[in-house]
Amino acid sequence: MKVIGLSEYGGPHVLRPFERPDPRPGAQEVLVRVHAAGVNPVDAMLRSGQLHQMYNGLTPPFVPGLEVAGTIEEVGSGVDTRWGLVAGAHVVGFVDNLGSHGAYSEYLALSARSVVPAPTGASAAAAAGFLNNALTARNVLDAFRLPPGATLLVTGAAGSVGGYLVELGTAEDLHVVAVAAEDDTDLLHSLGAATLVPRGPDIAERVLKELGGPADAVADAALLHERIAPAVRDGGQIGILRSWDGDPGRGITVRHLNVRERDGDRDALIRLRDQAEDGAITLRPALPFEADDAPTAHTRLDQGALRERIVLTFDHDR
């Protein structure tokens, strides 16, 4: 089978096709024929070498990708088919990628606990781009355990993770305050944000002025770190999605969160799929690239300012 991976770290140009043995599902696994794979910032981190410590001692090619949409090709022994995991089913899956095991692959053997039926009516391209970001947002909110009515500040609120934080927080009756570009006001209000504070200099001071006081917690999807910490109340919480060794003091709990912790969390995946079906969370429009055009897809990812979700598509008929 074909995978898109890298044998050296660098810019988008290092991504290229490789041939790997066809996988087979083990016990409690399903074999997924991948139609589309989501492209995420963590994929660029792998490509550039920022995650090299995870890959030390492993043999290339290294294959990026944390999420897929496709069809089940084969069901391994012991899989409970009551979950809808049968041959031919349209599914989405979370991929805890490492080494040559990653979403940029024509076929993947995945734990049945990491695969759920795709949202009804969603194309593979659209379905491939929501699971990782929505699960990241779910992981943040589960760590915070905020009561209804609490104030949740979301930085980078118009981005993929930020948008799901806004929607999921709103669904849990939190007072969601969004930090984003002023041009995204209409989008964020449509997602449920109660208040928008335009991003820019002195953001913490402007949040405090807008709210008349600090937030209970900040989900820092924009990686503002020490710049946003003053907007959190004493004893509040900050959710960190990438490395930060700062200490804001004042009894604030800094939660270092990694979505890989939720690999195999079937209940969370099913809940997110159901929320995508009933409209509680929104599938972003897809920006598809053919798998062989992965360097172009990563070039666009590096440029930022995206409101669509980049996905790689696999044409199994060629």
Could you explain how this protein is built, in words?
With 318 residues, this protein is of the alpha/beta class. The protein folds into two domains: 160 residues, Quinone Oxidoreductase, Chain A, domain 1 (Alpha-Beta Complex), CATH 3.90.180.10; 126 residues, Rossmann fold. It contains nine helices and 15 strands. The strands form three sheets. Strands 3, 4, 5, 6, 7, 14 and 15 form a seven-stranded mixed β-sheet that branches. α4 crosses α5 and α4 crosses α8. The longest helix has 14 residues. It is globular and about 60 Å long. The chain starts with a strand and ends in a 5-residue tail after the last strand. The model has no long low-confidence stretch (mean pLDDT 96).
